[in-house]
Amino acid sequence: MQTVTLQVEDSTYDKFVWLLSHFSKNEVKILDQSKFISDDEYLRSIDGVVKSIQEARAEPLQNGVTLDKLEW
Q1: How far apart are the first and last CA of the chain?
Q2: How far is CA 7 from CA 16, 40, 53, 61, 70, in A?
Q3: Tens of pLDDT along 27-39?
Q4: How many CB atoms lie within 10 A of CB 50?
């Protein structure tokens, strides 16, 4: 079976779900339904992320580490 992620316009969502309901559960299964939010909205929704970013921005550049010094 294949998995496809779609972003469906609110005005067509009900019609789209109606169409999918005409397939058997063996043919098409809705795995996840959620409202789309941008990456920015998502990150802002996590407690402490905004504060952490603000604190990191306030750090002096000399406290930073260059990419060649990072251990991935």
Answers
A1: 35
A2: 11, 17, 29, 39, 36
A3: 999 888 888 888 9
A4: 12
